[in-house]
Amino acid sequence: MEKNGFDPGKFESIPQSDVPKGRDGKHKQIILQLIEALDQLKVGSALKIGLADLPDSKENIRSALSRATKQRNMDVATSSDDHYLYVWKNGA
Fold first, then answer.
1. Mean of the pLDDT values across residues 18-43?
2. Which of 42, 59, 69, 70 has its CA 20 to 30 A from that of 23?
3. Cα pseudo-dihedral 91, 49, 71, 18, rounded to 10
4. Is 84 exposed, middle or buried (0-12, 13-18, 19+ CB in 10 A)?
5. In angstroms, rounded to a whole number, what is the distance separating the alpha carbons of residues 79 and 1?
6. Is 50 in contact with 84 (CB distance < 8 Å)?
7. What are phi and psi of 5, to 5 degrees?
8. pLDDT tens digit string along 60-91?
9. Angle between helix 58-71 and helix 28-40 axes, rounded to 10 deg
10. pLDDT: is 18 or 6 the higher one?
11. Residue ranges of domains in the chain
């Protein structure tokens, strides 16, 4: 045991290829679908997504979409009401 209380021998090791890949999880499919739809969206239009159709809360989907669009240098905005999440490309 090292002097800071950390014992590196108490942890199991696994091949790196077996490590789960971050956020390639429950939001990946919906986020990829939204990005594809945004790429095809006409200027001046917004996607209208039923909240009941989302696999998670609108807050979690917005967060996942924000991370994904930032990685792709896409400028996207969102809004919502009691029934829908709206997504569009900013400046379009």
1. 85
2. 42
3. -170
4. middle
5. 52
6. yes
7. 90, 0
8. 999 999 999 999 999 999 999 999 999 999 97
9. 60
10. 18
11. 26-89
Any alpha helices (H) in 4-84, and if so which ranges?
A: 28-40, 58-71
Chain-centroid distance, C-alpha 58: 11
Rounded to whole angstroms, the Cα distance separating 18 from 21 reads 9
For residues 80, 59, 65 and 35, what is the CA-based torsion angle, rounded to 10 degrees?
-40
* Sign of CA pseudo-dihedral 43, 48, 53, 58: positive
Task: Count how many residues are written for the chain.
Answer: 92
């986020």: which residue's tokens? 31
User: Judging by beta carbons within 10 Å of its beta carbon (0-12, 13-18, 19+), is residue 52 exposed, middle or buried?
Assistant: exposed
Around Cβ 54, how many Cβ atoms within 10 Å? 15
